[in-house]
Amino acid sequence: MNFLVSNDDGYLSPGVRVLATRLKRLGSVTIVAPDRDRSGASNSLTLSRPLRPRLIEPGVWAVDGTPSDCVHLAIQGLLPEVPDLVVSGINHGANLGDDVLYSGTVAAATEGRSLGLPAIAVSSTAHVPQHLDAAADVVADLVGRLVNHPLPALTLLNVNVPDLPADQLKSMIATRLGRRHPSSGIVRDADPRGREIFWIGAAGEGADAGEGTDFAAVAAGHVSVTPIQFDMTRHGVMDAVSHWLA
Amino acid sequence: MNFLVSNDDGYLSPGVRVLATRLKRLGSVTIVAPDRDRSGASNSLTLSRPLRPRLIEPGVWAVDGTPSDCVHLAIQGLLPEVPDLVVSGINHGANLGDDVLYSGTVAAATEGRSLGLPAIAVSSTAHVPQHLDAAADVVADLVGRLVNHPLPALTLLNVNVPDLPADQLKSMIATRLGRRHPSSGIVRDADPRGREIFWIGAAGEGADAGEGTDFAAVAAGHVSVTPIQFDMTRHGVMDAVSHWLA
Amino acid sequence: MNFLVSNDDGYLSPGVRVLATRLKRLGSVTIVAPDRDRSGASNSLTLSRPLRPRLIEPGVWAVDGTPSDCVHLAIQGLLPEVPDLVVSGINHGANLGDDVLYSGTVAAATEGRSLGLPAIAVSSTAHVPQHLDAAADVVADLVGRLVNHPLPALTLLNVNVPDLPADQLKSMIATRLGRRHPSSGIVRDADPRGREIFWIGAAGEGADAGEGTDFAAVAAGHVSVTPIQFDMTRHGVMDAVSHWLA
Amino acid sequence: MNFLVSNDDGYLSPGVRVLATRLKRLGSVTIVAPDRDRSGASNSLTLSRPLRPRLIEPGVWAVDGTPSDCVHLAIQGLLPEVPDLVVSGINHGANLGDDVLYSGTVAAATEGRSLGLPAIAVSSTAHVPQHLDAAADVVADLVGRLVNHPLPALTLLNVNVPDLPADQLKSMIATRLGRRHPSSGIVRDADPRGREIFWIGAAGEGADAGEGTDFAAVAAGHVSVTPIQFDMTRHGVMDAVSHWLA
């Protein structure tokens, strides 16, 4: 099995390296990842300028672009063969609830799924994870299950792993995305030259973090596995909209 | 009614100006838009640096950030009052099918909806539209309908208007998102210094462009109105995934 | 006479517009300027990606690059004719002493001079100038003098104009560059997510601001005109270095 | 002796690593360098946003900024002690003649000199150097000479080393900067979406590459050592300018 591994923290991130090392026990692995931290890039694709992938070492490409750029390049012609499966991560920091909308980690997996490959996005709940090996083992386990039970088109797995030693991790459970409270308001400040600046505020806490959500799962020590999709049509309201357009 | 208007082509784009002018007949309008073209930005939010919104003229802010940044800033504290409705566009160029995943136009509307406001994303099918007035009239019409028939949470409208004179536009119809073929492969080239570069290829044609899709609607001269959502949980496969995780 | 006008504050800056309007009385004028604020860009040239100049209105190009890029593009093929003279400015804020090393305003003029054209860089001492017309009149006056008295190769004029009404401006005097004290130390801070950030400190006050310097001239209400050069060889120490290398 | 080592190719460049390793024989060494290739950055300083230096490994900082940013941060507060000497390089590719105006390698050294430290910029003539060790030995030799024979204020050394084995390198000679022909014209092209783009053309060949220049020295296999300065006042024309301003 040929794995394409990417992320949004950059090719030097410990998370992507531990993941690649673990997956090598299952097949061949190529990392194609941003040349620097591109967290929060969402699905953005770089169309206005060319990209310059660099082969840093055998099996490791660094790209001056977004996570989606990396996976797109890799599958659409950079690599000699189309890979069998895309894994994005291990992100340093959770991607729960609405985070998935902004997440470059999820975007890299989405790009792979959009191009027809099975895909997994995986995040550790810690910003400085201590137990990446345990999270990598979780991915290896999931890969086997996913290959045996393919998901429908436009559907992938978003996995969050509590940063715990393997023997303290509870079981993997299927979850739905919760919801965060809106971020705190924007932060007004001044730069050292006295000019006004604004920062986007920190992300909010879980608002819908109840039973069945990804928030609840990781809070209880479980590995959260959320099937997510990017068929964005809201089929359920189609009739109503048709009616009020008429 | 207070409108927040944004886009991804930048605050100087004719599309956003024509839209704002038209909506002023319905209420007060503030433009908060990127200071330059940010097409393809998707939902990316700028967290790594502060933003510097500039009041260019009364009611027009330019922000050195993404479309999502603009709407986030506007609602979370830049403007004195939270607006009543967010309209993003009029984009120069269609946003059909998978385009919505990458679109900054849709992202600006999504950010508004995520923060609780009704939201519309609107695109003209032409890259150099000749009939922006007609498209703006469509938006004005839709605003009234949307206010009277609120959509569920996490749901907004993605509207594509053929670039035709008002009297040649066919009716508004509710559509589902179609699908594009994958883009053509990456384009290898060399820069003037002889170094290899890669471009992301052009977007593919409609693959699922049949009956009921947004592609089919605009091809037939209709205004396509797609209810889209960003609850990304794939509820339909939850039981299956639970089963194979067990 | 054909003027090429550029700056580093961007093509929308009042300074560049007032300058262009004034120079139109002397000949034809084309603005080729950055599409946004590129202050502090120094002489950087964009080699890693292509540029996309946009004709915003007749005679006004906006470029997604640095001030040096703008002048380079304009002279090396964007414009139908090579211009006769390059004027960069009117910058909002002084460019005195060591500022010239970092200044995009000076860099645009340097690029023009490097490509063989006479060149003037001009700055108003105010960040929000009130008397741009007076500064533009100074430039118009200097243009005539410069054309009649060409400077040696690799030499141009760096002009700083106090932000005063024309009738309060004292005479133009030739000055040498003074020196600033080093900027205040770097400013440590934290972003809203608690991560450490560092700002470059504000520029220092004049350290060598005495008799004959540009600092002293503008402080006294004079227009400072400094002949600057970019032959960077330190000829005076060549023998000493030869000696200690032997 | 405490060395600060920087460059413009990024902290991962072999050139900067070989240089740091060699200088460790002479004292303690800290690398503070860009997190990616910033060639052509000239003296630009990042004032519009904060910087995020990351300690990659003991003694190695990567900065999301320009070469000048790196040296400025290092000296103005990032490092516990102000270093004794700044060495920038070993650049992959020559910095000859007018190159110094645009060079980030030279800019890093200039920033150090501007803040009062002796400084050396060093480049290998090859884009993929095979003999970095020989070039590093040259630097180690020069360091001793420079410390014994300090240069005047605002003066530093720009060194270009032919990419040859140590035993084939000819002597170090003091040179003046030559001049390049202007670059070839801009290159018009189209991106894969059919939109017009422009590339800055490749640098020109040596125009003044005669006796005594840096071009001539390296062509003959010598190590070129050019004393360069950034007192940009053109003192020699001051009287003339005073006269025609009067």
TrEMBL record, chains A, B, C, D:
InterPro entries, per the entry: SurE (IPR030048), SurE-like_Pase/nucleotidase (IPR002828), SurE-like_sf (IPR036523)
Catalytic activity: a ribonucleoside 5'-phosphate + H2O = a ribonucleoside + phosphate
Cofactor(s) recorded in Swiss-Prot or TrEMBL: Mg(2+); a divalent metal cation
Keywords: Cytoplasm, Hydrolase, Metal-binding, Nucleotide-binding
Survival protein SurE-like phosphatase/nucleotidase domain sequence ranges: 4-182
Binding site for a divalent metal cation: 8-9, 39, 91
Cofactor note (record): Binds 1 divalent metal cation per subunit.
Cited NCBIfam families: PRK00346.1-3 (NF001489), PRK00346.1-4 (NF001490), surE (TIGR00087)
HAMAP family: SurE
Function (record text): Nucleotidase that shows phosphatase activity on nucleoside 5'-monophosphates.
Protein name as it appears in the record: 5'-nucleotidase SurE
Annotated organism of origin: Halothiobacillus diazotrophicus
Designated gene of the protein: surE
